[in-house]
Amino acid sequence: MNLDLLVVVFYFLVIGAVGWLGVRRATTKEDYLVAGRNLGPCLYLGTLSAVVLGGASTIGSVKLGYTYGISGVWLCGALGAGIVVLSTVLAKPLLQLKLYTVSQVLARRYHPAARVTSGAIMLAYDLMVAVTSIIAIGSVMQVMFELPFSTSILLGGGLVVLYSTLGGMWSLTLTDIIQFIIMTVGLMLVLMPMSIVKAGGWEAFASLLPASYYQLSSIGLDTILVFFLIYFFGILIGQDIWQRVFTARSANVARYAGLGAGVYCVLYGVTGALIGMAGKIILPQLANTDGAFAAIAQAVLPAGISGLVAAAALAALMSTASACLLASSTIALEDVLPAIRKRPSGGLVAGRFTTLIMGVIMLGLAFLVRDVMAALTLAYNLLVGGMLIPLVGAIFWQRATSAGAIASMLAGSLCVLGLMYYHGIEANSPIYGGLLAGGVAFVVGSLLTRQSPQPQVQTE
User: Fold this and answer.
1) Is 342 left (phi over 0), alpha (psi -120 to 50) or beta?
2) How many other β-carbons are positioned within 10 Å of the β-carbon of residue 148?
3) What is the rounded distance in angstroms from the CA atom of residue 80 to the CA atom of residue 436?
4) How wide is the angle at C-alpha 140 spanned by C-alphas 23 and 294, nearest 5°?
5) What element of type H or E holds 422?
6) Which residue from 183, 254, 265 is spatially nearest to 41, judged by alpha carbons?
7) What are the angstrom distances between the C-alpha of 420 and each of 261, 361, 376, 434?
8) 315 and 50 in contact (C-beta within 8 Å)?
9) How far is it, in rounded angstroms, from Cα 428 to Cα 448?
10) Helix axes 112-145, 55-68, angle to 10 degrees
């Protein structure tokens, strides 16, 4: 246990040191928010993969593999498919806009009020995803090292806030590369093969696991559909992902390195599912499948090596937490605060101060929220239910109006919240109802109103 803890402490020190290097690169607001729009293919692939593959894809895929078998790959499969479509279809036109936020794209088509409304929804989404990642960091450290939960949150979350605030996107990019390497080594090259060997090899898989564990549909077609509605479309419209696209040096970097990141996501999902399947053989009677990842790591790995795998899990969580923290800070700086203060967004100092404030709020919420999956589901339901229809309409329907877009955002978000309250957090009805309500409000609102002249977006 002490050796594992030393490995994680060393990992924290490395991340802190690498994050500090980003401070020297972040000399302008563009450096701070989008790494100067200058990332090459290797940095871009690593940072995009790291931000997409967070706690849900790491801990969640292992849990799904333990419960359903290879069908657990669908969570990461939906994420990977979203990255592939984003990279091959949307990346080039997005890069040409030279913007910072999703809401600024909406502002090119709709009234500025739509920018503020969408910014509020996107801010809630990114902040909640950051909170869930911080909670998961605390849970992993609590389970594996028997640290108090509050101490774990302050250690892991405090480090995320520190390097995100100081270096912005450059710190995130440099730390993401370290985290990407650790995730790849820890899960793909260490935990997966050692779990399979511990379970008895492929022969044990064939003889000890039920046939349903080898069916891609065993998780249920309705669940697969919901994964694509939430995660596939969430990737296509999420601020944390778009902000990474804005960092690419060129359209070719975004396209081909992004395609590589999408393939990596799918392979990562296969890795998680196989680890879970091996865990089903090694620990067949786990009472709490949410803790399957930590339990399997402890059962399979010797001291020191299990610390490396714990660092891999923390790397996945910290990359998502830092990305969503900076995304929420960017939205607040560029979309929400200028509307409240009635003046343009600030520069580098304002960016750092906003990130620090959002980080403090993130840590505070992490102490209040207890159900991670519920919070994550709420975040993605709000994002897709409130934002998908207006964004798609802005691109493909010339008759769309600002009133229709705002009505769609409000109707979709409120419907999602109402159905989640009525049917429960894990029900499938909220996302269906949110999209239906948002679609009806969008069409009716647009047909009953006229589009106002398109305002120009001010990004400075």
Assistant:
1) left
2) 11
3) 26
4) 135
5) helix 402-423
6) 254
7) 32, 24, 13, 10
8) yes
9) 31
10) 60
pTM of the model: 0.86
Report how far Cα 406 is from the mean position of its chain's Cα atoms.
Answer: 25
Q: pLDDT digit string (tens) for 144-200?
A: 777 888 888 999 999 999 999 999 999 999 999 998 998 899 899 999 999 999 999
* Rounded-to-integer distance, Cα 133 and Cα 122, Å: 17
CB 95 within 8 A of CB 354: no
Per-residue pLDDT tens digits for 235-258: 988 888 999 999 999 999 999 999
Residues 392 and 238: beta-carbon distance below 8 Å: no
Query: Under 8 Å CB-to-CB from 201, ≥6 apart: which residues?
Result: none
Question: Is 137 exposed, middle or buried (CB count within 10 Å of its CB: 0-12, 13-18, 19+)?
Answer: buried
Which two structure tokens, joined as six digits, stand for 200?
A: 């008895």
φ/ψ bin of 370: left (φ > 0), alpha (ψ from -120 to 50), beta (otherwise): alpha
The total of other beta-carbon atoms located within 10 Å of residue 289's CB is 16
CA dihedral (76, 304, 299, 426) in degrees, to 10, reads -30
- 3-state SS assignment for residue 248: strand
On whether the CB atoms of residues 81 and 261 are closer than 8 A, the answer is no
